[in-house]
Inverse folding.
């Protein structure tokens, strides 16, 4: 599985921690930036990761900014993306089971590295349940067509 990663300056350190963990676990990664802690704009990285996922260049994406809010909003503007901001493991599991979230957003300033890695692991290992949830996801995706 290939994971696209992106973060602004407020999420850089956590992105690097997650990237190292992913590589250690055998995942292929594509780092879309930022590459240091110089001030930058989160929409650039939210869009870059989302476009890779939407185009099939990556199977899933992980985004980090200070809170995870702005970068997840940015990613969700890209057609085909279902980015979920998660700060706990239950939400990480449920966004995959019920919403088929293809992008995970995290906040470096609100989620510690240990919890963030637990969230990532659960998110990556949880499959979409389908069934009645597929009908609901299909309805969400139809909103983009309107």
């Amino acid at each position: 599985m290939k994971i696209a990663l992106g973060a602004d300056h407020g999420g850089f350190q956590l992105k690097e921690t997650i990237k190292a963990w992913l590589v250690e676990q055998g995942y292929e990664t594509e780092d879309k930036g930022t590459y240091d802690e110089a001030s930058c704009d989160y929409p650039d990285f939210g869009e870059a990761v989302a476009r890779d996922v939407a185009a099939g260049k990556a199977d899933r994406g992980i985004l980090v900014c200070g809170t995870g809010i702005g970068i997840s909003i940015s990613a969700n503007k890209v057609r085909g993306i279902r980015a979920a901001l998660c700060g706990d493991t239950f939400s990480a599991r449920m966004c995959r089971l019920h919403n088929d979230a293809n992008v995970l957003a995290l906040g470096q300033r609100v989620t510690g590295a240990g919890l963030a890695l637990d969230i990532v692991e659960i998110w990556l290992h949880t499959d979409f349940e389908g069934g009645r949830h597929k009908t609901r996801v299909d309805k969400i995706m139809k909103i983009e067509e309107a």
Notes: Residues 9 and 39 are 6 Å apart (CA to CA). The helical segments are 12-24, 42-54, 69-75, 89-97, 113-125, 132-145. The chain is about 45% helix and 15% strand.
